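Hey, resending since the last one bounced:
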Amino acid sequence: KAVYSHPEAGHVMQHQDREVEASYYDIDPETGLELRVRPDLVIPCMGARLGFDLKSISMFDVKENQLKDRIHNEIIKRDYHLSAAMYCDVAQLDQFFWVFVNKDEHYHWVVVVEATAELLELGREELRYSLNKIAHGYDFGEWPAPIVEDYQQGLTDFDKKRLAYLRSL
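The C-alpha cells again:
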C-alpha cells in the first residue's frame, strides 16, 4: 500500500507500459560466461529504458539523519550496485533505481534511490573482478578461499574517528 501511495513509486509500479520481471540474457565478451538478469520492473520513459528493483528494508533502529548513509551501506554490503550495473548492461537500461520500502509494522515509508553513473561504474568494476574469478575457477578448477591468512582486526576509519571523539569528551 505504501508503494502504491508514493507519488513516484506508485506511478512507476502502475505504468501502463511496464515490463515486470522480464528476463534478459547475454554472454560476457571477456569470459564467455552466460549472464541473466531479471529486474523487477522496466519502463520506457522519453526514449530511455528505466530499470527498478524493489527492496524491503528494516530501519526502525536508525536515526533519521543517518538513513541515507544506512541505505548506501545496504547497497554496498549486499552488492546491489553490482547487480544494478549488470541489469543496465544486459537489459540495456539507461538508468537504474531502487525502490526501498521500510517494512517495520505501522511505519511503512518508501524512498526511490537512483544509482549514479559513478556507483554503476564501481558495480561494473566489481562485477568484472567477480566474473574473472568465476571464469578462472571454471577454467582451472581452482576455487581459492577468500581469506588465506590469519590476521589481526583493527579499527576502520569510522571507528578511529569515533574513538577520537570519545577520547575528547
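Residues 71 and 100 are 8 Å apart (CA to CA).

Sorry for the duplicate.
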